Amino acid sequence: MTVLVTGSSGHLGEALVRTLRTQRRDVVGIDIRPGAFTHQVGSIVDRFFVGRCMKGVTAVLHAATLHKPHVATHDRQAFIDVNVTGTLNLLEEAAAAGVTAFVYTSSTSVFGDALVPPPGEPPAWITEDIVQVPKNIYGVTKSAAEDLCQLFARNHSLRVVVLRTSRFFPEEDDNRLTRETYSDANVKANEFLYRRVDIEDVVSAHLLAARHATSAGFSKYIISATTPFTRDDAAILRSDAPRLVRRYVPDYETEFARRGWAMIPGIDRVYVNDKARAELGWQPRHDFRTLVARLRVDDDIRSPLAREIGSKGYHDRIFRDGLYPVE
Question: Could you read off the pLDDT of 234-265 as tens digits, one per residue?
């Protein structure tokens, strides 16, 4: 089975190609930029290029995209071209080639405004059933691409799985206040409680999804670290998160204090991965509890794969306000 990985010079794409190579799988990486894990250089917007790369392919892992940090540096048409037209090209060529599994890397950004409840309301409990309310062109195009995936599953019998991934990028947070309040490692550790996932677990979800797609028509899953919280915690989670974290992971305070870290006072949303664990058999290895266990022995909170890949960045230049020109 030959696997086509799009965005292979990027963060997730490289991780997918690395892992497939380790498993001695036949893999073809494509990207608009050359790289050590890219075999064919070209754009998914180019239908001819996509068709040429699809020959002999049995599974597609579609990770290539314009991201949220590109909103300030690329116009809306560029997002339409790459995220929508590029996905359409891949779907059409995959259907024509008889591909047996198509996995689309989407984002929890499709939920948009649904992620932030009004003041005084409990946190948003985010499952696959929450109605999407995209708030920028990135979210709109990821949502549109999801709809295209469903269309091809229904009308062309292409077996498609959509993975809505939470944060796994290694770069600093795009919110200035967050960067000024917490160290980068502190931010990421906190996020594993409700909105972050390690790239190693993202990769394993993609490989399981490709296997699952061969027996399923169309499905969507949230891919995020397993939260320690339950829905019954909502009453106090937004106003007193440290109290709940102490209940579930009591030794976190000692490790945070050793590093001068702080727990966020409240949490406004929780990504729930129950469906992916139940239906895909996904068993994410990295969550807040495992991170605290690593802190106890002064280990890195990142997985070996995350450390190996490092940071890719999103632009060729540094902006006055850091890596992300978006607020």
Answer: 889 999 999 999 999 999 999 999 999 999 99
Structure tokens at 30: 């494509």
- Spelled out in words, what is the top-level CATH class assigned to the domain 2-182+198-226+271-283? alpha beta
What's the CA gap between 99 and 223, in Å, rounded? 24
Look-up of token digits 């003041």: 119
Report the alpha-carbon distance of residue 323 to residue 312 in Å, rounded. 11
Whether residue 327 is predicted with pLDDT greater than 50 in this model: the reply is no
Residue located via tokens 């870290």: 261
Mean pLDDT value across residues 185-211: 98
* Residue 268 or residue 68, greater confidence: 268
Average pLDDT, the chain: 93
Sheet holding 101-107, edge to edge: 40-41, 26-31, 2-6, 59-62, 101-107, 160-165, 218-223
3-class DSSP state for residue 231?
helix
* Nearest residue to 288 via CA among 239, 240, 260, 251: 251
Phi-psi region of 7 (alpha: psi -120 to 50; beta: other; left: phi over 0): left
**Measured distance CA(193)–CA(270) in Å, rounded:** 8
Q: What is the DSSP string of 258-325?
A: HHT----S--SEEE--HHHHHHS-------HHHHHHHHHTT--SS-HHHHHH----SSSS-BTTBS--
Residues 184, 185, 188, 190: is their CA dihedral positive or negative?
negative
